[in-house]
Every structure is written in C-alpha cells, then in structure tokens.
Write a structure and sequence with these properties.
CATH topology of the largest domain: Aspartate Aminotransferase, domain 2
Distance between the termini: 52 Å
Strand content: 5-15%
CATH class of the largest domain: Alpha Beta
CATH superfamily of the largest domain: Type I PLP-dependent aspartate aminotransferase-like (Major domain)
Number of strands: 14
Number of domains: 2
Structural class: alpha/beta
Radius of gyration: 21 Å
Mean pLDDT: 96
CATH architecture of the largest domain: 3-Layer(aba) Sandwich
Strand order of the largest sheet: 2-10-9-8-7-3-4
Length: 406
C-alpha cells in the first residue's frame, strides 16, 4: 500500500462521529445538524430540467465518452461568467478547465504541481503552505503528493486571516504551492488587494503556485462582492496569471452539491499540464453534468435569490446567538465561527446529547502549530438549512449556554 496513506488524519466528521459514540441524544428534540457545510436550499428547477433533457436528447448525453477538457460551449460559459463577475477577458481554450467539484480540483491540482523529488537542504520535503484553520483537503492533497504541510499562524484580530508575515523566508524557499481560501472556511474572511499583492510578490521571488479556493464567492453579506484572485491579479497588471490557479464551484452558488461541478482558471502553462494529468486520471465531467452546469453558469437570477435567502437567515439567527456567544456576521460564506467558553469538544458533545443539535468543534478544523490550535475554544455552525430550522437550533443553543453557565 502507498505508505503516504498512513499520514492522513481522520476527517473532521469521522472525529465527530467518534466524539458522539455511545451518546443517545435527548429524544424530546428532533435532530438538527449545523455541522456539515452542505447546501440545503432547493436546487433550481431549470438546472434539473437541463440534466433530464440531456439524458433524453438524441443522441443521449450518456451515449458517449466526455472530453477531459469539456465541451467548448461549457468553457465559453466559464469565460463569460468570469467576465460578468470579475471583468476578466480570458481564453476559454487555454485558461480554464472543468473539474468535478472544487475538492477534486484542489486535490488533483496539487498532484500535478508538486515535485517530491525537488527537496531542500538536508533532504527536506517540499512544503505546501496552508491557512490554519483550513479545509482538510489541503492537508491530504499535500501529504499524498509527497509534500509536507506548513500551517500559517492566523490573526484573530482579522477574523483568523492567515498572517503571511509570520512565515519565515526559509519556509517560502521550500514552498511549491500555497492554498488560499477567500472567502474563508470556516471564518468567512475575505482577502484584500494588499494581501494578494504580497502573495504575488512572494510567488515571483520563490516560484510557488497559488491555488485559490473560491467556492464561497457568491454568498456574501457586504455591499461589494468578494475580490477574486484572478481579479486581483488583473488589477495589478498580472494578466498572464503566472503561477495562479483559481478554483470555483456550483455547489454553494447554485445549490447542487451532488452534481460535483466546478472549474479552474488561470495560468495556461499550468493548466496544460493539469489537462495532461486529468487525461490519464480519468476524471472527465459527464456530458449530463456539463449540460446542467452550462445552464447554471449562464443564469444569475437564481444566485441573487439564493444570496438573499442567506442574508435574511443570517440577519435573524446571528443576533440571537450573539446573546450568549462571541459571534458576529461574517464577510461571506455560510458559517458562523463562534468563540465559546471552555472546551469546544465538550461543548459539541453536550449540546448534541442534551439538545440534539450538531455543531463542529473548531479544533477539528485546525492543527496544533506555533504552540497552539487556533480552532480550540470555537465552534463552526453551518446555516445551510431553512430559516425556521436554523432559528430553532439557535434557540436551543441559547438555552444550552445559559443553563451551562449556571
């Protein structure tokens, strides 16, 4: 077996299952989960119809092998969306590719980029720099590519944004790739232009690739939409997008997590190698999914409606939870990242047992680094259900915290 598999740590939801082992939740309450970041707003009907029509079309969307690069019309839809959303002018033939969701894209891109044979002094492994807390696929992708993750210190004063200035030059010298996530999971923090300029300058100096995870870009609560990595590069005159790959997804934007559909865009030289990798890896997107994706990327009305649902929901739920927790409206995303008193694992376990509400301990989303785990003493709540269910969960949490404090 591949010995690198032994380096993988249990996924947060497996750790949560182990935490809850042997617990019988209070049967007086129906279960409510705020643990999994799985969109639960209804999938737009027109997207479903596009998929069904593809199946019944002659020839059927299931009757042929798909091209790894995707259909030209789909790549043109990516380019049109990037122009509408970010004002970008990009080549659909060379600067973008479909992926089966951003998770698959993040993992596969890392396998393409990392050169495990290129080691540093004393035969050290190459590094992949990750935010901390972070989406766990970053760590697994780095480890299975033969690299070592480096967890950047986070700044609580800036909503746990990565403190890039804390990274030693010796680390940057060994870095082959960094992951950035803006809007961030779990904090909702959004990177500004000055942060992007800093990363681009570092990439120019040390040659690493920037993988920009932007799957939450269309759910935001401020007047201005979040700045994207490609958009930042263009504003700084980096129109070749050197060493920059942006990844986005339909899962959150269009409420289709089961479709596994997204795309990557950026540096054409990297994407040429990425296409080669994917051709052998066998991860071409189904023609049926391509047809539904094409319909989704061409429509913005459902995205506006979806964002309005989240805005209304967060406006009701956040003030209620703020009565007992240190929590505030994020810049973007659909999570609340709350500070609690005491152990985050004890909080999650007891809340599940007494009130049948599931939240994710913050320490499960981070790693011990620079002497501490930045997620300790925090919980992540995914407000993905409808407003009534999220409000009911919030009321139970308020009651739980007040009784716990006595």
């Amino acid at each position: 077996m591949n010995p690198l598999l032994a380096l993988l740590k249990p996924y947060p939801f497996e750790r949560l299952r182990q935490l809850f082992a042997g617990i019988t939740p209070n049967p007086a309450y129906t279960p409510i989960s705020l643990g999994l970041g799985e969109p639960r707003h209804p999938t737009p009907v027109f997207i479903q119809q596009a998929m069904v029509e593809s199946i019944h079309r002659t020839p059927s969307g299931l009757a042929s092998y798909p091209a790894t690069a995707g259909e030209p019309a789909l790549r043109e839809a990516f380019a049109a969306w990037l122009h509408t959303r970010y004002g970008l002018h990009m080549n659909p033939l060379t600067q973008m590719l479909p992926v089966n969701g951003s998770r698959e894209g993040l993992f596969a891109l890392t396998q393409t980029v990392i050169n495990p044979a290129q080691t540093g002094a004393a035969n050290q492994k190459p590094l992949v720099v990750c935010p901390n807390p972070f989406y766990q696929i970053y760590e697994g992708a780095a480890l299975l590519a033969g690299a070592e993750p480096y967890y950047v210190a986070s700044d609580p004063a800036r909503n746990f944004a990565p403190d890039w200035d804390s990274v030693p030059e010796s680390v940057w010298a060994r870095t082959q790739q960094i992951f950035v996530c803006s809007p961030g999971n779990p904090t909702g923090a959004v990177m500004g232009l000055s942060e992007w300029r800093k990363l681009f300058d570092l990439s120019d100096r040390f040659g690493f690739v920037i993988a920009s995870d932007e799957c939450y870009s269309e759910i935001y609560f401020r007047n201005d939409p979040p700045l994207g990595g490609l958009q930042a590069a263009a504003q700084l005159g980096r129109t070749d997008f050197k060493n920059l790959i942006s990844l986005t997804s339909l899962s959150k934007r269009s409420n289709v997590p089961g479709m596994r559909s997204g795309f990557v865009a950026g540096d054409a030289a990297i994407l040429a190698q990425f296409l080669l990798y994917r051709t052998y890896h066998g991860c071409a997107m189904s023609p049926v999914v391509q047809a539904a994706s094409l319909a989704a990327w061409r429509d913005e009305a459902h995205v506006v409606e979806n964002r309005a649902l989240y805005k209304a929901k967060f406006a009701e739920v956040t003030p209620l939870l703020a009565e007992v927790l240190d929590v505030a409206l994020p810049d973007a995303g659909f999570y609340l990242w709350a500070k609690i008193k005491g152990s985050d694992t004890d909080f999650a376990r007891d809340l599940h047992a007494l009130y049948n509400v599931t939240v994710l301990p913050g320490s499960y989303l981070a790693r011990e680094a620079q002497g501490h785990n930045p997620g300790a003493g925090r919980i992540r709540m995914a407000l993905v259900a409808d407003t009534a269910e999220c409000l009911e969960a919030a009321r139970r949490i308020v009651e739980f915290v007040r009784k716990r404090a006595k």
